[in-house]
Automatic annotation (TrEMBL):
Entry superkingdom: Eukaryota
GO biological process, one term: carbohydrate metabolic process
Source organism: Diplogelasinospora grovesii
Protein name as it appears in the record: GH18 domain-containing protein
Domain GH18 intervals: 1-71
Length: 95
């Protein structure tokens, strides 16, 4: 059963048999979050992980882009030369 909590601004599903709770975003919850970002005049939002995003009308990234109206193309100036991950230490070449 899917539940949308207006208080938390989140969507979740709970299976009482397995006692499993799963929270996730939907197009509607992303639009709600973007509205919050804009109402508070915050900089932008981000996605922690997006490899499972859809490529249809249920795409969360597309919903965020549409709600924001633009994408910030400012170069990332973060530097972690001492990272144990070679790609991060090298500044994510190819990105």
């Amino acid at each position: 059963m899917e539940v949308r909590s207006m208080i938390a601004g989140a969507t979740y599903s709970y299976d009482p048999v397995s006692k499993e709770l799963v929270s996730y975003d939907t197009v509607s919850s992303v639009q709600h979050k973007v509205g919050y970002i804009q109402s508070r005049r915050l900089g932008r939002g981000m996605f922690w992980e997006a490899s499972g995003d859809r490529n249809d009308s249920s795409s969360l990234i597309a919903a965020s882009f549409t709600a924001l109206g633009e994408i910030d193309a400012t170069l990332n100036l973060l530097s972690y030369p001492n990272s144990r991950y070679s790609t991060i230490a090298a500044g994510m070449p190819g990105e």
